[in-house]
Amino acid sequence: MTVATGSRTRQVVTLSQEGADELVRAVIAAARTSALPVSVAVHDAAANLLAFVRMDGAPELTIGIAQNKAYSSAAFGAATHQLHELIKEDEPLRLGIVHTPRLVTFGGGYPVVADGRIVGAVGVSGGHYTQDTAVAEEALKACGYSV
Predict the structure, then answer these.
(1) In terms of domain of life, where is this protein from (predicted)?
(2) What is the DSSP string of 15-83?
(3) Terminus of the chain with fewer CB atoms < 10 Å: N or C?
(4) What domains lie within the chain, and their CATH numbers?
(5) Residue 49, by phi and psi: left (phi above 0), alpha (psi -120 to 50) or beta?
(6) Going residue by residue through the chain (147 aa), what tens digit of pLDDT does each one get?
């Protein structure tokens, strides 16, 4: 995500607007294939919103969930379903971390990795988290990113 440029500064490599828009289009295409109206959010490497679309028919509640899935993935550098795996057997962490604002620990959020660096994240919400995960994975692959 960053390139060292000295002891007091760094360069951040992040998704461009064009890259974010391409990912949104890929999510919409994958969601249409599954007949699943979704909301999709793409965040940059710093977990800031770059692009967002709510498809016709996607429930209003999916707006915040998609954005929070992308935020969680960018902020932690992990897919949201992996966050659940991390906390599920740790009682204090499992009970405490769920109170962290914007944290999502179920599937549908993925970091976007380019050249080994996290450059952003995508969040998909509209169906069961397994459907959201499948749509996100299909879109990432269509754009040439690994899952």
Answers:
(1) Bacteria
(2) --HHHHHHHHHHHHHHHHHTT---EEEEEETTS-EEEEEE-TT--TTHHHHHHHHHHHHHHHTS-HHHH
(3) C
(4) 2-142 (3.30.450.150)
(5) beta
(6) 556 567 898 888 999 999 999 999 999 999 999 999 999 999 999 999 999 999 999 999 999 999 999 999 999 999 999 999 999 899 988 888 878 999 999 999 999 999 999 999 999 999 999 999 999 999 999 999 999
